[in-house]
Amino acid sequence: MADGSVDDQGPVAPLDGGLPITARQEQFSLAFVRMIAAAAGCSIKWHETDYDGVDITIASSTEYETYYCPEFELQLKCTTQHDLLRDTYFSWKMERGPFLKLTHGKRYNEAFLGVLVIPRDDEPLLNQCEQHLLTGSRMYWQHATLLGEIDDDANSKTVHLPRSNLFDVASLRSIMQRVGEGGVW
Length: 185
Known about the structure:
With 185 residues, the protein is an alpha+beta fold. Helix content is 21%, strand content 29%. It has 3 helices and 11 strands; from the N terminus they run E-E-H-E-E-E-E-H-E-E-E-E-E-H. A 5-stranded mixed sheet has the order 3-4-5-7-10. Strands 1-2 form a two-stranded antiparallel sheet. A two-stranded antiparallel ribbon has the order 6-11. Strand 8 (127-128) and strand 9 (133-134) form a beta hairpin. The longest helix is centred in the N-terminal third of the chain and has 20 residues, at 21-40. The chain is globular and about 65 Å long.
């Protein structure tokens, strides 16, 4: 009775969907950003691949001082590694190739790194009832130009995303306004 129906021993729990944890994390991080973007009045443009070092583009339909319909690119990561949280920042290790693509000086659009910290494996990703949808997840972000440089002989770089850079509706609107006004990071 894998369908959650009742057998001779009582109710049977529905089976898990079977998606591997890394795929769940990817899907959850995309859904998290989509909810924030929708609440901020922005839209998402999907990339077929993240070959260029980014996963999605977030776009506005607003006219700002300098630009109409500004957008920026976002590289998404997702983790349950709460031990990477420090008092003032979240520490994240990036491999050389993706780091160089994300921070490339000739990138046309502004680019950001966002790391979603989700509940540990033994905790639910979200709780839902009739009144609300809650998650213990939070995303930290940083503009790519502020991630620093990587040493010539290094295979990776550990970057610090300020804990004050919490990706929420207010911060997304602020980022978009700064991009729309041609702001320099």
